[in-house]
């Protein structure tokens, strides 16, 4: 685990802050259950130091997640977030994530993208 004022890494993800946006990238082959989701949110909040940010979340490393984890991330995972851009692959994970966004109803503006530049453009309004 590495931590600095603007960078943090745990066994599941890398987090960094650049240009008033929090970048969050899952490591390859991550499986998210409720315990992992709670750890990820706690670590994200730590790097944010009580400041809300728009978040670009690269979900391409996730290989699976359970319902409890998805529910937790959609609700409690929105603490100190202004908006979230999810960046994923053009694959079945996009279909599942799209379905989840409709059913889970995250508490902040959240959109799914396959292109990082479009994801960043969406977040500009929330800086």
Automatic annotation (TrEMBL):
Residues 15-127 form the DUF7793 domain. InterPro entries: DUF7793. It comes from the Bacteria. Pfam families: DUF7793. Gene3D superfamilies: yp_829618.1 domain like (3.40.1680.10), yp_829618.1 like domains (3.40.970.30). This is DUF7793 domain-containing protein. It comes from Flavobacterium caseinilyticum.
